[in-house]
Amino acid sequence: MVIEISCKTKKWGSSIGIIIPKEIVDKENISIGEKIVVEIKSRPKAGDIFGDIPGWKWKRSTAEIIKEVKKGWD
Fold this sequence. Notes:
With about 70 residues, the chain is α+β, with helices and mostly antiparallel strands.
């Protein structure tokens, strides 16, 4: 059976861990020490989708660009 959940990673010593929600633990009857398989899918980055733009460098933060766009609208 495949169940898809979304969770945040958390710092755990020098590693990163995830927490499986109690509802899933109960539903799947997962016990401490049991081996499970976790499939990792990360969100693609814009460069992965559109490719690199040669010579393009982000010179301003998003907040700076938004501030500039809002000038004159206040």
